[in-house]
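Standup, Tuesday
Yesterday: got the pipeline producing structure tokens again.
Today: sanity-check two examples.
Blockers: none.

Example 1:
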Amino acid sequence: MGTSTGKVRQGDAEPERRGRRGSRHRRPRVASRRLSPWLAMGAMLALASCGGDASSPTDPAPAPVQGTIRGTVSVEGNGLAGIQVSVSGAASGNATTNASGSFQFNGAPAGSYVVQLSNLPDDVTFSQTSQSVTISAQAPEAVLTFQGEHLRTASISGRVTVGGTGAEGVGVTLSGDGAAETRTDGAGQYAFSDLSAGSYTVTLSDAPQGLEFSDPSRTVTLAAGATVTVDFTGAAGAPATVIITGITGIPSGNPVNLASIGGTIAVQLSVDPGSHTLERIEVLVDGEVASSQTLGSAAGPAAGASDGTDAPGADLAGEGDAPAAAPFNLSLPINTADYDPESGTPRYLNGSRELQARVISAAGTTFSATLAQPAVFNNADVLLSQISSSTEANDAAGFLWRGGDVTVTYLPVLYSGNTVTSISSTFFGVNRTDNPAVFPRTAVGTVNSTVNPGTNLIANTVLSSGEQGPSNFRQVRYESVPPVILTDFNLTQQLVGGIVRCCGNNWVNPDYEWQAGAPSGSDVVAGTAGVGGLTVTYHAGPAGISNAELAQRPAAATPGEAGLAASQANTEYAVVARVADALGNAALQRLQGLGMNPLQTFGVDETPPAAQRAVASGTTFVNRTVFNADLGRPWTGTDQIQLAANEDFAGFSAGPLALRIRTLNAGGEGCSVGATAACLPVQVPFTINIPNTVPAGAIVTQGYFVYEGEVFNQAGLGSGTPTERWYLFDQTLPSGGNIGLSGTFEAGESYTFSTTASDNVDLLDAQFTLEFTGLTGSTLDVFPMEARQLLGRPFDENLTTSAQVSSTVDFFLAAVETTTLGVPDGEGSMVPARWAKFLVRDVARNQSISRNNFAAGSVQGGSSYTTLPTFAAGGTFQAQVDPVALCVLDRGPCRGSGVREATLRATLTGPSGAVVNPFDQGVRFYYGDNLPASFSGGAGIGNRRLVGVSNSPTTSDDGTTRTFTWEVTLEGPVLMDSGWNEGDPLNIFVLGVSSATGTGLSGTASVGDITLVNIP
């Protein structure tokens, strides 16, 4: 916690006030001023001079003193929290001490102060509760200490009785906020005086045998000056007994010879609790606790530990536990050979020992028994050893092996009382007389112990008595023999799907994995198996350094990981394989020449090769070309494109190309060129003509053909993401289902039309239209109800071969009325809707139509536009187009004067004040396609396609004529695949729709206003 701080009020100054910029003046004033805790901030701590002098206004004012007053309040060395501290004098303030008894005031101006304590506890006294300090520029900090003492005026006394008679000599212990011990006098009385206020516990101990106390411990709270009486009443009962019935060996369980005891023994005990609640049982050796057991109930104790602590799982007895009414037996273990693991000092030297057993009751009463015959401990001196090594590892069978330098630390444990004067040890013929004994690998040499070694580490000692001391014999599995390399390390070819990707003429790429040509090794040397666990690491660098120098470089799985830069030749780098066992014993082998990689060096190529495409004959195959004879793009067996390899200095092998050609259609995915059913790429020569390889026979399968080709050089570098070309050959029409037409169809109402569509390869889009027969003298006129719905994604892996299509028409067009020079032709020219038609296209632009006629009388409503005031007043409705050459090409620059888009307009013109906009359902813009009736449902000029709908006309009015204008933009690329030829004119149609009539009013632009150019 931080130091508590306070504020001090300043009584004779205020901050200086600023006048105009560049000048200052002071005005004396009496004002309240407080010091801030911790930090002086802003004007609150700024001090003005209390007096003035005749110095020039330009003389700098002396900086005010910002002093600190801090201190501590403690009682007998412990900080006292919550004490109020006040400061008065040159300034004033208040604070409260924190948990450590600290307080602090900052920002104290120069002057004298009195620091006063208040709110002190009743049970403490201070020699002084106020102190005076002075703050000045020379002494800006004052540190105070207030030290107090507890008032020791309380006491605890009482009497210990048994049967109404005082019990003499009973130990009484005081703990808690004070500690003391005493014994009862002849009357059983005791007393503790001069106590401070606090909490204390009074506990009986060392009660005479035969006495039992049900509550031997009490806790009381004392106030200052209080006297509390704590009495204890006991009862005489049957004494507890413990008998040593025998000593047996562990783990044999057989009785031991008391004249010669060694190792771990079990002391057998018979215990009778009498009328006491037993808490603990102990076995002592020469008066020192050697083993013990804490009792939790009469159910029977757990086995005790041999180190003088409770046995694992033992329960501690609490107050109120039922006494062990019945006798019971138990055994406690003692390790007579116990020793200090750091120094080797035995806990018990050999010789005669007194064994004693005792039980302790919950009231602290002790009952004991001593073994009549002395026990003679007789353990043999031993020499222990601990081995460490530079490396260690387990073999496959779990045996521990060591390698490198071996260090053996010896620990003599001498129960005889002698000391060791010398230790000599031998390991694989190497002798040492020091401890620890170090056996360097260089001294041990190249050795390999067997999986089941004999004794190969021997140590002998000489005692201070001059006699031969204990010895130590160990079997250590040790290996310093490197593995044997069985096969060479080479640069090998790497195959991916049967295609050679790497490597030739000792060229590799940064990601080439050395493991592809890894050597093999064995850890069986001269018929003796070692630790095993062989690993191979690779270390690459300049070709001019030795194998050992290469092996010192960091291990790397690839040239890139080794940090090797691109080289200009295949002789710049070398690499060694390091074959090591689990202990780090290693053999090195430099890269060997073999086959298509004959050198012991290599080069690194980082530059990918290039795949060139060239036209072999016929037509260049643009990606995503659609072959459809009806569109003027038939599939021919002579049209070809070549893939060829173009390489840098690494060069090529004989077959650098990887190629596969997949087919996709409604039947699933197939493979025209490729290996196995998975259509893995196959290796092909330097150039290959495509798609001349497809098909093998005369009939071309309809569907997508996906060409994926990549070029690989001798370093294994590819030309990048496989060159992918999509081609579509499809001359089969999609199919559309029947449109269910039932009931009546009211003009202006909302209706939903639905049907199904399917295709042999991939659906593109669909559209519902209405047909009005004889509207313009042609066989039929088609007005789409909506824009085309996209059904699939062209040239995508996920084909759409079937779809459920539905469309909701918000405003049913019951009839269409024609115009002549913009004037409605009247009721006689009204053409009702005769057919509902569903047009579906596939990605190859094959189109099919399913038609269902409206039943006689089912289409109802609709009236002529001549009935509307706008047209009765002479209004006209016409289509307008600015003459342009519209560029149909969807990519690349337009040739000549072609433009990418054209603006289509519809105008309604009439007398001001009489003409209003009747087309509350907007104006729709259409163009007529040029597909012949022989093409997949093409129907000449009558087949119209929706460009867009305009609902927000602009209005102009010159006071005589009012004009409403609707506009949409037609983008040239939307006209692709509509059967157009270079220079064809485009017909534009407009259709205004009014809810007042429930019909549409048709208008036509001049033929030839838009000319189509740049037809792909």
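Example 2:
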Amino acid sequence: MSRSLTLALAAALFAVVAATPSVQPRTDELWYVYYDRGLRALEKSRWSEAIAQLEQALKKSGKSSANARTYGMRFIKYFPSFYLGVAYYNKGDTDRALDYLKREAAGGEIRKSDTHRQQLEVLLSAASGPRADQAALQAAEANRRKELETKLAEGIALFQKGQFANALAVFEAVLSLDPTNAEAKRQKELVQRQALEAELKQVRVAAQPKRPTPARPGGPRPVTPPAPVTPPTPAPVTPAPATPAPVTPAPVTPAPVTPAPVTPAPQLPVVEKVPATPPPKDTAAAPPRPVVVAQPRPQAQPQKPPEQPAPAGGGGAVVPVPVPVTVPVGAAGEKEPEKQPEKAAPVTPAPIAPEPVAPAPVTPAPVAPAPEPALTEAALFEARAWEMIRRGKDLLAKGDYEGALGKFSLVLTLAEDIPTLPSQLIADAKTYRDAADGEIKRGAEARRQAELAAASQAARTPPQVAIITPTNLEEPVKDEIIRFQGAVVDNNGVSSVEVEVNGRRFGNVQAGASTRGVGVVARPASAVAASSQPTENKGTIVNFSHDVHLTQPVNKVVIRARNIYGLTTEQVAEVKLEVKRPKVWAAIIGIGDYQHQNVPDLDFTVADAEGFYDYLINDLAIPKENVFKLINGEATTQQIKTVLGTKLRQKAAPEDMVIIYYAGHGAPEQDAANLDGDGLEKYLLSWEADPENLYGSAFSMNEIANIFSRIQSERVVFIADACYSGASGGRTVFSSGMRLRGNEIKDNFLARLSGSGKGRVILSASSANEPSQERSDLGHGVFTYYLLEGLKGAADGNRDGVITVDEVYEYVADKVPAETGQTQHPVRKGEVEGEIILGRARTT
């Protein structure tokens, strides 16, 4: 991978976090201050500063990674180890970069679904080896940027046309491919701001309270009382039987009236004032009609009209309407009406001159319906918010997640300005907003995957893998190590080649690297012969070579190649290993009747040796010619050397196993030059051994170690039922003058013996300071008795039918101390690769 693409990839990741609006840090969360500074330093390629800040953030927070870390009311992605790896990588310190990136990968905090996961894998590959082919990667990067520029221009055109939702979708797609695209971020913010302002404008316009138009539901039109006027003296009227027009409700024939004093009524009559102003055009031709109005309440007091001159141009005539209701003066609860000055007017049948009485005009109160209460601005906004939530839910159900997100986001924006909105409304808006946002992200990821899939089908095909050797995988191979060679070709560039053997991975390196047995060389496809490469003759060819260690009868080998777009191809091969059945060789030595008179005889050492011999022949079915048995006089120094140092060396192949069993006396001798740290050399006594001349007549542990080194077999098991402590009842011989002071003897000689070659295991009947006991009731040494019992099946703890060295040791280590009252503890020394099978359980 080119350095420019790696830096662009890193910058993309920085922008995802750096684009988060800054929040004033609190003193109890200082980790965020360092983390924010570190990310900003990464954006500006100030690697040293970024490293210092991110390490402080990691120190303060106490966590190396957290996919969602709370800071106040915000959630941020917190991957300090990941960004430290990026900073160190770009600074040139690939070792520390790899350390931090592996730490992040091992922590598992970056989920597989997270975009950081893919980038982490790419950076791990980049930090593990040299950079990929520069030209191919630069061309791929140029194509990608050209594609992004085209999409960006499309989004800007939609924005200019006012298609905010479509433009926002395009900018989101650009940012999903390139999170660091500053122009896409800026355009997205502009679109969101313009859409929000337009929506808010609509909301505020719709929420403006309208001026109420007063209704007139059938009641009388309110009449403004006109100024009282003095009516002019009418012309003489000749009485006639005709009905005068202004009289209501029925025609009245005037009769001769006898002049009399006029007593004013307790309440003024209700009159209708004919308007002095001209009527409207549509009603100008209609003559004025007298209006009959209900009588006023008796409690109302008569009003004295103010004396004003009649308006110029005349006015409407006031026609008095007689009221036939009289209220007695002084009635309870009523005030006495004011008396009008009496005026006598002679009445004759001649024309009547009415008195110029100007009653106060009484205007009935207009009957209007109660006005509807005006909505407050908060109530209007709440109603509008609920309506937007309803519309957003409809859009969500239709799959218009962008539109739904806009509605719910607008509601939450209103909630910031109007604190009186119900909490349930805000909670619903947040819930649906998160649902819409989640669907948008899933849709963006699905579109990205679809685009990748479409691109891969059109031009980005997966890499092709060809295995050149071995040529014939059907036949079993004899060698445990076999070399796999082949080639990987890809049109755009190979990112990594990985070899996996039986589930164990090797390699995982960038193209052009060679590491741990995987050799990878990148070159143009045309440079490889057609006979040894896939058919495509363009792009990049990567040759690989790996030595595969076959450890099973059938071995699964996987060659896994990945190109720069993350597309992967696996080539699987099965290799059969020709199994060689190993042979077992054994030397059995048992001495109970020693030649020298100062060496006491032992009762059951021969029985121990014979019992072990019978087990090998009868239970393990080892051929007799593979087992060398030396009993009593046969076990001379010369014979033992011949069997161990010559015959086993000649017979046993490296894949075979050798078992050596010894039952007899052991003896210590003072030797200041001994390497065990106790000043004592340990010996195994042959049949003719002299306790006064152990060096010349017995086998020291140094000599046995030299003999072991001559045996070619990689698996050697040495079992000794002897001791060196001289305790009562044990199998030990002391030379004259030999005295032990306390627990002086050490077990170091056993470790020295087991370390003389690969796969050496030593089983000793007891530790150096303990006796190796034999019992008449058992007919054997205690150790050998339980050794044979365990090998015949009692030690098969996992019930798989075979007994390993470890299983039989665990068995005797449990049984022998219990049988001897904790005075004898078997010892095991040595290490081997895998398991050494020493026996098999008997089937019944």
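Quick observation on example 2: The longest helix spans residues 423-458. The mean pLDDT is 71.
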